[in-house]
Amino acid sequence: IEEMAGIIANLEVHKPFRLVVNGIHICDYESDFTYRRDGKLVVEDVKSKGTITRAYRIKRKLMLAVLGIGVQEVYDS
Questions:
Q1: Regarding beta strands 33-37 and 71-75, do their DSSP bridges make them parallel or antiparallel, or are they unpaired?
Q2: Using only C-alpha atoms, what is the Rg of the chain?
């Protein structure tokens, strides 16, 4: 709906990101959604209690440290 209304653009579902440190591929992160809002990239992940794992927390930190991208979390009740 937001894409059709022109609020967001370039909506992608399950976009992969390669996380490479010093030329070594560490892991991949797959977002639930990516899109542009006001020209800025938004990476969004829908989380519940059971999906906030140790691996997820590490990948979220790597996204910020390696790519400079903060992951926006949306909580599913």
A1: unpaired
A2: 13
